[in-house]
Specification:
The complex is a heterodimer of chains A (106) and B (272). Chain A is mainly beta. Chain A is 0% helix and 49% strand. Chain A has one domain: Immunoglobulins (Immunoglobulin-like, Sandwich). In chain A, a hairpin with a 2-residue loop joins strand 3 and strand 4. Chain A is elongated. In chain B, a hairpin with a 4-residue loop joins strand 5 and strand 6. Helix content of chain B is 43%, strand content 7%. In chain B, the strands form three sheets. In chain B, strands 6-5-7 form a three-stranded mixed β-sheet. By secondary structure, chain B is mainly α. The chains are: A mainly beta (106), B mainly alpha (272).
Chain lengths: 106, 272
Amino acid sequence: MARTLVTVPQGAKRGEIVEIRVLIAHPMETGFRAGPDGQRVPRDILRRFTCRLDGEVVFAAELFAAVSANPYLAFPLRVDRAGTLTFTWEGDGGFAQTETATLAVS
Amino acid sequence: MTRLAAARACAMAALVLAGAAAGTAPAGAQSPTSTRAAADARRSGFDDMSPQTQAMQRDDTQNPAMLFVADGEALWRRPAGGEGKSCAACHAEATTSMRGVAARYPAFDAPLARPVNLGERVNLCRTRQQRAEAWRAESPDLLALEAYVALQSRGQAITPPNDDRLTPFRARGAQRYRQRIGQLDLACAQCHDDHAGNRLGGSTIPQGHPTGYPIYRLEWQGLGSLQRRLRGCYTGVRAEAPPYGAIELVELELYLASRAAGMTVESPAVRP
């Protein structure tokens, strides 16, 4: 399990736009670099990030080799209703990780 | 007036201006070094970073080093070694027991009769108290625990211990700082004292104050210790880098800490 830091502002009013921030520990190995033995290090990157609110996709991003290690993503979200946010990262070698956070409305 | 003297005068004027600007900076312009006296010409590497990189360090939700800190906190509570004790079993909560600890390292270790840095102290605690295996230098676990301990000193002043046993080591570190080495025949002082603030390639040469270690360096794409940074400079001047844990590096760390005494700990910092 990779370490993640998920920041969801709490106490937003209905209709307010908040910034969701996610950070995940991942090497994002490009597949273009040679290791100490001169052999190419196999690519190991995150390919896709998806954020869902109660199952409905509210934000998604595709990631490529140029993205640096430990990718940080921040995106705005209009808070229309309370619910559970699910964050999913998918990557090479069958990497898949899901984190959840509660989105509250005041 | 010779050209050199004119350049010096200009540099002095610029310094005075910089001091004046620092004195009148608005309260909102937060810098970890803003509390320092305007007369202090020392600058943290933070001050020379781009606003984007500064924002990364200021905001813990953006700072990738906080991923390591979270790992370090888990390690703090995890029992290890033959004694089956965790760090917390002896030191309790790091937020109180480790407050200010990183600000005074390297410190003297009596059984070894030499100074040790924070990472070595962690490993000594592992081998002596926990009867666990020492972590390899620059291993993710060691850096994570170091980052967690260093975080507890954030905002405090660097306070090298007033310990006479450290004096000869510190003096050797100071001497080494000024000694020309490598195929490029350069001393640390030539870049970091004489040419700090000028540019080397695309980067501003920092004054070389170790205020934020372990740092998350964008160039490394990861967390690294001061010894890794020092070894990078050794390679940069094409000298043979001493191995991790070598007394030469610890002596340099000791001198750098005394040179930065009173500056604010930023750990875990972000650097370009």
